[in-house]
Amino acid sequence: MDITIILIYLGAMLAFGWWGKRRASNSSEYLVAGRRLGGFLYTSTMAAVVIGGASTVGGVGLGYKYGISGMWLVVSIAAGVLLLSLLFAARIQRLKVYTVSGMLKLRYGIDATGASGLVMMAYTLMLTVTSTIAYATIFNVLFGFDRTLSVVLGGLIVVAYSAMGGMWSITLTDVVQFVIKTIGVFVLLLPFTWSKAGGYAGIKERVGEQALGLGTIGTGTIITFFVVYTLGILIGQDIWQRVFTAKSPEVARWGGVTAGVYCLLYGVAGALIGLAASALMPDIGSSDDVYADVAVHVLPVGLSGIVLAAAVAAMMSTASGALIATATVARQDVLPLVAQIFGRTRPELDTSDPEADVRGNRLYVIVIGLVSIVIAALINDIVSALTIAYDILVGGLLVPILGGLVWKRATGTAAMAAMAVGTVATIATMFVVGDVMANEPVYVGLVSALVVFVATSLFTAPTPANVMSVWNARVSGKAEEDPVPVPAPIA
Predict the structure, then answer these.
(1) Which residues contact 470 (CB under 8 A, 6 or more apart)?
(2) Contact indicator for 219, 210 with CB cutoff of 8 Å
(3) Which residue ranges run through the membrane (predicted)?
């Protein structure tokens, strides 16, 4: 029964992908769903992309290990969604660009900010890879597949439905995944595990007071969660690309706030499930196995299939969002930069054949999706890989991106200098400390980038008036969106 439910779910994802294909008639529809998602669709897809395998399987695992304080990982992600939505989402939506690097170019007026696409692509690619690897934990429990086969199976399904209809397919599947996750976690797993563990009194008696403390995981760890994940959410291409899909600034703001509140509750629920599991099954070897083991051993057959489908949904929603983000950055930012390095020129966009342009976007999704599957099959230490990507993203790009959004005096020279210094400082500190999981690299990168950004902005000429005029027109919503550039082929 459980296997049947999962197979039906996977088949439904492919069907929704095919349905979304009909809507993806041009690049705007394919990459950002035509910028016309309403409140429900936007909230669903935003909540789906930020609540992935780390928040679901990982969140329950942290609750199992640290009790209620295991919630802080997902709470920090929720805080990022709330801050982005309340402070920046409306402005970002009005810019009518397609990538974070596009925002940097528009704000500072220099093509060199396209180099930020390399950092962003590394981040989104590793996010795709880690989400793909996460399928193995569920498929292994259900089907008995080995790790490689599980990665390939789940990865090919995500690539298939993502490539077919782009953001429309991803949005439609995200809605289904959002519903399944809500039912699986809030309606089934949380009440069943708490009831079987004897409720609050029974759990407290079995696990003790420490597991009920908010700070058990450690103050330093909690602070680092907020620095890395909250700030990472503020500038991630996968998150911004969802903001670009909103049909209005109001939808971007309040739909995002709703998604943030949902994520907050999701984090608390996951920690409570893990806490109850630690009382019920104290001998689970790996915290990553807690979610699947509890679903199989606590819930009746059939209901456990829905809960396992919820975990797969969480992983697939993040993987698909990161995949299309990687493809978008690769086509619009990285390939033009490579073309420039090799002395190639980029032709103007031929808008007379939008179907050909959609096929080009689809090809990028397929190729990068296959690359991510290969990497996922080969790599072992996914936590370290994702930590490196997040640290470089925050250390190198946070200051120039947010600085450009909030400080009129910020200059392009300062943005470039901050990106270079922040990235180098972050990577260098990793080598000096000798531990990529340490807290110091991201802090050193952030402080270095901030000092260089402020100082350079004050000692260089302000951004040209004509550049700021275009920027202000976009921010006020009085200008049309950029066309999607087509990179020149590389000989």
Answers:
(1) 106, 479
(2) no
(3) 6-21, 41-64, 70-92, 113-143, 149-168, 175-194, 214-236, 257-281, 301-325, 363-382, 388-407, 414-436, 442-461
- Residue 320 tokens read as 């698909």
In terms of pLDDT, which residue wins out, 9 or 265? Answer: 265
pLDDT on residue 458: 96
Q: Answer with the residue of higher pLDDT: 463 or 9.
A: 463
Rounded CA separation 155/176 (Å)? 18
Whether 50 contacts 233, CB under 8 Å: yes
How far are the Cα atoms of 172, 182, 266, 320 from residue 194, in angstroms, in the given order? 32, 17, 15, 32
Where residue 109 falls (left for φ over 0; alpha for ψ -120 to 50; beta otherwise) is left
Q: Residue ranges of the domains in the chain?
A: 1-345+359-378, 381-475
Q: 183: closest CA among 320, 58, 39, 304?
A: 304
Q: How far apart are CA 412 and CA 456, in angstroms?
A: 9
For 433-465, what is each residue's pLDDT tens digit? 887 777 889 899 999 999 999 999 999 999 999
Among residues 61, 128, 86, 79, the alpha carbon closest in space to that of 243 is found at: 86
Query: What's the CATH number for 1-345+359-378?
Result: 1.20.1730.10
Which band of pLDDT confidence, cut at 50, 70 and 90, is reported for residue 414?
very high
Q: Is the dihedral of CA 256, 29, 158, 385 positive or negative?
A: negative
Distance CA 473, CA 468 (A): 8
Nearest to 247 by CA among 30, 484, 47, 89: 89
